[in-house]
C-alpha cells in the first residue's frame, strides 16, 4: 500500500475555488512525499515528512505576503499494475481543508507606534506621555491565546526605557487576522529630542 501526502497552501487553494495549490518544497518542486508499506495489522500508523521552502515564505513576509496556512492532504492507495502505467485504486483519502489537526500556521505581524494624543509619530516631552503600539496580525491560529511582550528603546543608545517592558495576553479572533494594542504611559519630561522605537514579539501559550 502507498500513502501519498502533499502540503496545501490553504489561502491560495480557497482562492482557486478548491483546486489544490501545493506549497513549494525545499527542492523547488511540490512539497509532497509518499511511503510504501505492508500493514501487519488492521490498525496502525505511518509517518510522512515534508520539506517546505520556508525561506520563500519568510522572505515574502517583508513584502505583500501576509503569512501562510498549510494543510496536509493524504491519499491511501493500492497499485494494481507495475508496467509503467501505475494504475492505482484509492482506498481512502483525507482532504479536509478545515481540519485543524492537519494545519500548520506561519503567521505574520506588523506594528505601528503612534502618540495617543497627537495621533502621529510626534509626541510631547511631558509627564503623562501616552504611546500606542498597534500590532496587526495575519494568519494566526484562530481563537487562540497568545502572550505579547513589548518594550520601548532609546534609538540613540539602544537602551530599554525604564519601566517600559510589558507582557499582555491576547486572543486572536475567529478569522485569525486582526489587531491588538499595547499602551505605554510614562514620564517623558526629560526625553526632549529622543527618538523612541517599540519592539514586540508574541508566543503561543500552548
Task: Describe the 3D structure.
It is built from 2 helices and 11 strands, in the order βαβαβββββββββ. With 206 residues, the protein is mainly β. The radius of gyration is 24 Å and the shape is elongated.
Q: End-to-end span in angstroms?
A: 36 Å
Helical residues, percent: under 10%
Determine the structural class based on helices, strands and strand pairing: mainly beta
Q: What kind of sheet is the major sheet?
A: 5 strands, antiparallel
Number of strands: 11
Provide the low-confidence segments as ranges. none
- Rg from Cα: 24 Å
Q: Characterize the overall form.
A: elongated
Number of helices: 2
SSE run: EHEHEEEEEEEEE
Provide tags for this entry.
206 residues, mainly beta, 5-stranded antiparallel β-sheet, 3-stranded antiparallel β-sheet, 7% helix
Secondary structure elements and pairings:
Blueprint: E1 2-9, H1 10-15, E2 32-36, H2 54-61, E3 68-79, E4 88-94, E5 103-106, E6 108-115, E7 129-138, E8 145-154, E9 166-171, E10 178-186, E11 196-204
Antiparallel strand pairs: 1-2, 1-3, 3-4, 3-5, 6-7, 7-10, 8-9, 8-11
How would you briefly describe this protein structure?
The chain has 206 residues and is mainly β. The protein has 2 helices and 11 strands. β3 and β4 form a beta hairpin.
Amino acid at each position: 500500500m502507498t500513502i501519498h501526502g502533499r502540503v496545501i497552501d490553504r489561502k491560495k487553494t480557497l482562492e482557486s475555488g478548491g483546486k489544490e495549490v501545493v506549497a513549494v518544497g525545499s527542492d523547488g518542486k511540490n512539497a509532497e512525499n509518499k511511503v510504501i508499506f505492508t500493514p501487519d495489522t488492521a490498525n496502525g500508523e505511518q509517518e510522512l515528512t515534508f520539506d517546505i521552502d520556508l525561506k520563500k515564505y519568510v522572505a515574502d513576509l517583508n513584502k505583500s505576503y501576509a503569512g501562510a496556512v498549510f494543510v496536509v492532504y493524504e491519499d491511501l492507495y493500492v497499485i494494481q499494475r507495475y508496467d509503467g502505467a501505475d494504475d492505482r485504486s484509492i482506498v481512502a483519502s483525507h482532504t479536509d481543508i478545515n481540519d485543524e489537526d492537519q494545519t500548520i500556521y506561519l503567521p505574520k505581524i506588523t506594528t505601528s507606534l503612534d502618540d495617543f494624543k497627537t495621533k502621529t509619530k510626534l509626541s510631547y516631552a511631558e509627564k503623562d506621555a501616552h504611546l500606542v503600539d498597534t500590532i496587526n496580525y495575519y494568519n494566526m491560529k484562530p481563537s487562540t491565546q497568545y502572550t505579547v511582550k513589548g518594550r520601548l528603546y532609546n534609538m540613540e543608545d539602544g537602551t530599554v526605557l525604564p519601566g517600559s517592558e510589558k507582557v499582555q495576553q491576547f486572543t486572536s479572533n475567529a478569522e485569525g487576522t486582526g489587531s491588538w494594542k499595547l499602551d505605554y504611559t510614562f514620564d517623558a519630561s526629560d526625553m526632549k529630542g529622543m527618538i523612541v522605537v517599540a519592539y514586540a514579539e508574541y508566543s503561543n501559550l500552548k
